[in-house]
Amino acid sequence: MIEDFLTFTLAQQIPPQCEGAASGFTWKWLAHGVVLLEPNQPLDSCDHIAISAGIHGNETAPIELLESLLQDLSRGVLTLNVRLLVLLGHPSAMQTGERYQQIDLNRLFSGQHRHYEASIETQRAAQLESLIHAFFSASTQGSQSSGKKWHLDLHTAIRGSHHVRFAVLPFQESQSFSRSLFYWLDSAGIEAAVLNQAPSGTFSYFTSHYCGADSCTLELGKAKPFGDNDLSQFAQVDLALRHLIEQGIQDVSPTKKPPILVYQVTQQLTKLTENFTLNFPDSVKNFTTFHQGEVLATDGDTTYTVAQAQEWVLFPNAKVRPGLRAGLMLIRTDVELG
Question: Which segments of the chain belong to CATH 3.40.630.10?
Answer without folding.
Answer: 2-247
